[in-house]
Amino acid sequence: MSMGSGRRPKPKIRPPPKLGPDTSIKEIWNKLSHAIREIQNHNASKLSFEEHYRYAYNMVLYKHGDQLYNGVKGIVSEHLDKLAEERIVPAFPRTSATQASAPGGGAAAVERAVEGDRFLRAVKGVWDDHTGSMRKLKDILKYMDKAYTQQQGLPAVYDAGLQLFLSHIVRSSTHPIHNHLIGTLLGQVQLERDGLTIQRSTVADCVDFLIRLENPERLGGRPVYATDFEPEFLRRSSQFYRQEAVAQLVKADSSAYLRNVERRLSEESDRTAHYLWSNTSQPLQMLLVDELLTPHLQAIMRMPGTGLVAMLDGDRIDDLRRLYTLFLRVPGDAGKDAMRLALRGSVEVRGKSINDSALAAAAPPPEDEEEKPDVKGKGKAKAPNAGATALAQALRWVQDVLDLKDKFDAILDKAFGGDKQVQASINEAFQSFINANQRSPEFLSLFIDEHLKKGTKVKSEEEIDHALEKTLILFRYLSDKDKFERYYKNHLARRLLSGRSASDDAERGMVAKLKIEMGFQFVQKLEGMFNDMRLSADSAKSFLTYQARHGAAPLDMSVKVLTASYWPQQIVTASTCTFGEPLAAGAQLYQRYYDSRHSGRRLTWQASLGTADVRVRFKARPHDLNVPTQALVVLLLFEEAKEGDVLSYSEIKSATDLADSDLQRTLQSLACGKFRVLTKTPKSRDVGPNDTFAFNDGFTSPLARIKIMQIASKVETPKEREETQEMVDEERKHQVEACIVRIMKSRKTMGHNGLVTEVAQQLSTRFQPSTGLIKKRIEGLIDREYLERTSDIGVYRYLA
């Protein structure tokens, strides 16, 4: 007795017994055909699987596979025709296929939905009945599929059943099932688009078997869904949304239109996800964009009261975000490009409005920023505080531009997701309108000046730094940065020399920021001005020690020594002024002190830049006056004057040697301002060469200390602007020539076009030189033999 492993031996599958002598093929087929009909009648439980499998096996084995295969197809076809007649045809919708997708609401729409659902359920019921029968037949005829259909190159029995369902049901030649099926499916979709609720599961079931049914090979083997349903579905969808776009545009509500587009995109995406083929999603979404967006980009943005401008005006972030998101869907960046162009145009229009508003009020006469002559008499007085108004308008321009920048920065971040291309368009618009205002460098410098100088409103370090950071953003847009440098130097000089800087740290911090932006060369002179102020402070301490050793000065004085090459030209340019005593004695003492410490240096006294504190006795009471140094020179002429003594304009000019412009401003501040310590005859606003002046002994004021400012404007007059532009143009000539020489020295030889391009590129950080300017400077250098033309046309050579 042998021992095994404990496993039972695997039973052998015995082949079905062969046909007996009394069994004929006809009998076998009769039994099989009866079994097939029983299966189709849902009586498969009464049948023996092994018995009928053996019948099919023997028919194939004895070369009757073709009879079996074709016989099965015939029975299936017969059954499908019966099902179509009994279950599908009676369920045909009363609404024709061409009307199934017609728009309409109310009871009629509900009736169409119910009829359509009943019909689709009938077709789906036949599909389920047929596929259930075919699965059972597939098991019984498994040997035929293995031994006959493969060898003959025929579809397996189940696949043949699907083809029969396609030909006898979906594309029946006897009944118009196909038209009703496709039309009803399209109608159900349309009813849902019109707002009616449909049975999605029924539609999904029918779509599913259309996807599973494949066309014959001659049609490429594609799903029936892709050839019979999808093209018509997309065509009708296109027609529907084209008409809807026209109807929505008539309402002229851009926000509502975009919300509808967004809703439709979401609905169609949901529709393909739940009961259409997923492959339909992309062409359907593209269709929506093509019909609802692409042809109407401009119309959407230009709708009056609701378009892009209105969205921007009202900071409607949700609408702007929706517009941006939807326009991104338009192929080829056409949507975003159109939006960017419109956005840039809107910014430029707003910027132009700011420019027009500022320039309309920025034509001031020379006025004092803190006081205005208040003359009573027959003279024609100008509008009060015209200089202050011009300054306020300049500051308003910068603040309006900053507010606009803040607005669009917020929109860019919240609505456009910080899109770099959109940001570039906004920046281009700001650069365009800022540089369209020729006075933007001056205005920007005045704005910085207002924040860095001492004033009535005390600002914290954080407020100052925040303001400077924001103005630096506008500075980057300037193309004429060299012009800004000139204005900034003038304003910085005034703050430093008058001691009106709110914070030394803030002053140096701003220069450091400009240095980061523009490099060392841009701020070299500004840093030199700070250095002069530091050296002057050290020198003041040393001067006190000198006075102690050599005798006290006739008056308490503080002197600032400025290096001519660092400071603005109008400040260091000598102005004539004859100092009277004791000013002359003090100046001589300081001159001796300075000469003792420096050799080979020459001091030039600038009376126009200083101030003086002087006590003046009037009849009522004495007052301490803070006046410009030139005003003190004039007042000292009246020190010994008696009541009734007058000095003519020519006598004062002769005694002080002041230029007419300086003398007129000085006399206006003393005799025509709010505090008139001198009287003028005749009484008028302007000072003329025939006027006479007397000491106003009867002057009185409740203030013990009075500040009398020189009549001057912080905002340039048209004449001053012309002079500034001339100086800028002259300086640019030198910069262009220096750049040309620098480039040619490095390259030795260079073509004309390349040289012009290189010069323009290198100087673009300071200003934009014109091609004509560069050409003229090249000619000038050739004339002065820095360059020469070569034998090659348009090529220059550097001459060492």
From TrEMBL:
Belongs to the cullin family. Coiled coil: none annotated. The keyword Ubl conjugation applies. This is Cullin family profile domain-containing protein. It comes from the Eukaryota. It comes from Cutaneotrichosporon cavernicola. Residues 1-23, 356-383 are annotated as: Disordered. GO terms for biological process: apoptotic process; mitotic cell cycle; proteasome-mediated ubiquitin-dependent protein catabolic process; regulation of gene expression; regulation of primary metabolic process; response to stress; signal transduction. Keywords: Isopeptide bond, Ubl conjugation. SMART domains: CULLIN, Cullin_Nedd8. Residues 439-671 form the Cullin family profile domain. The keyword Chloroplast does not apply. InterPro entries: Cullin, Cullin-like_AB, Cullin_CS, Cullin_homology, Cullin_homology_sf, Cullin_N, Cullin_neddylation_domain, Cullin_repeat-like_dom_sf. GO terms for cellular component: cullin-RING ubiquitin ligase complex; cytoplasm.
